[in-house]
Amino acid sequence: MESAGAALSAVARTPLVAVFVAAAIVPHVSVGSFADALAAAVLIAALNAVLPPLVAALRLPFTLLLGFVLVLVLDALMLLLASHISTRTIRVDSFGWALLASIVIAAAMLVLEVIFGVDDDDTYSLRVIRRIARWRTGRARPSISRNTIPG
Fold first, then answer.
1. How would you write the pLDDT of the chain (151 residues) with one tens digit per residue?
2. Domain spans of the chain, in order of start
3. Nearest 5 degrees, angle CA 28-CA 26-CA 56?
C-alpha cells in the first residue's frame, strides 16, 4: 500500500513529465528548465481545474460525439493561454501545435498514469463492491460500533 505522500508525488509528477514529453516530441513547443516545466504544469492544472467543469456544466446536446474533440481543443487553448500568460515557462507557436501537443500530453498522461498507478478508482470501487457483497451475504453486519464506510 502506497503512502499518501507517494501517491501525491505520483500525481504531481505525471503532468510535469507529460509537459516535458510534449515539448520533446512536438516541434515549436518548448520548455525552458525543470522549474519552468513545473510552473507550466501547475498553471495548466489550475486552468484544467476551472475550465473543463464549466464546459461540462453546459450540457451540450452532442457531448458524447463532440466531447473528446472539445476537451482536446480546450486543452490546446489552455496551452496557448499558459504560453501567453508566462512565455518563459512554455512557448507554443500556434493553435495547431498546441492541439498536437494536447494530443501528445493526453496520450503521455494515459501511459504515465498506468505506469505510476495514479488512477486507483478501480481499486476503491472493487473494495466497495466486496464490502457490499459481504454485507448482503450476512458475513459482515453493519453496526454502530463498526465502521461501515468502505475504504
1. 455 556 556 666 788 888 888 888 999 988 888 888 888 888 888 888 888 877 777 665 566 666 788 888 999 999 999 999 988 888 999 999 999 999 999 888 888 887 876 666 667 777 777 888 777 776 655 555 455 555 4
2. 4-119, 120-151
3. 100
HSE value, Cβ hemisphere, 13 Å, CA-based, for 14: 21
67 contacts 75 by C-beta, under 8 angstroms? no
Q: Is the pTM of this model over 0.90?
A: no
